[in-house]
């Protein structure tokens, strides 16, 4: 039989494949989130519980918070799970997300070599940044518009350093895990969320040097993308996720995620 005779059959089969793949896509909730929530291991713990409760599959796209928010603005995600409150609230004001709800929090910590050659050890993050800016020490910045990067830039700005350019300052343009790996291999300093740090296995000589400052508070929010802006988004399943993750059940799963007996994230939904 010639190819021409089979062409209608191939076309029909292709249509079936496209319909099937479209059905699968329609069932999956696309969540744009941060590398910290992914690399901390939280989603491997949280999402199976969500699926068991609702039957909804979730596809996570782990990028920096700035990139995740851009995905929501373009309609490339159904729901956002991020940690830059000012940028999140701006997205709601612009109408690209219907609301922003707090979900959980942990904190940032400054890690560096145990010998601490710069002498930053303590509880004052701004004092630590002043010492780093005046030193030749290696400081690894994510440089990726993530929530962690945004926090770092706030600290530099607070000490009058809008664009840090000291000798040891390096932007990797990478996620939290790779940034920690670079710091470990160069005996450098790096700002990280505590969750990713606790799950990080390649610490080499790094230890936590600065923690406990109230300015290191790190809050995560969840935002459903607005179907009025992007009618194709999976608003129904986004609503299910938002309702579940802020419910007593979802908050309990978050509280139950621990490494070595230490809790990584703390429920913070306003029920």
Automatic annotation (TrEMBL):
The species this protein belongs to is Rhodoferax mekongensis
Signal peptide limits: 1-26
Q: Which UniProt keywords apply?
A: Signal
Q: Which InterPro entries match?
A: ABC-Tungstate_binding (IPR052738), PBP_domain (IPR024370)
Every copy of the PBP domain together lies at 25-248
Check the record and name the Gene3D superfamilies matching this protein.
Periplasmic binding protein-like II
Q: What is this protein called?
A: Extracellular solute-binding protein
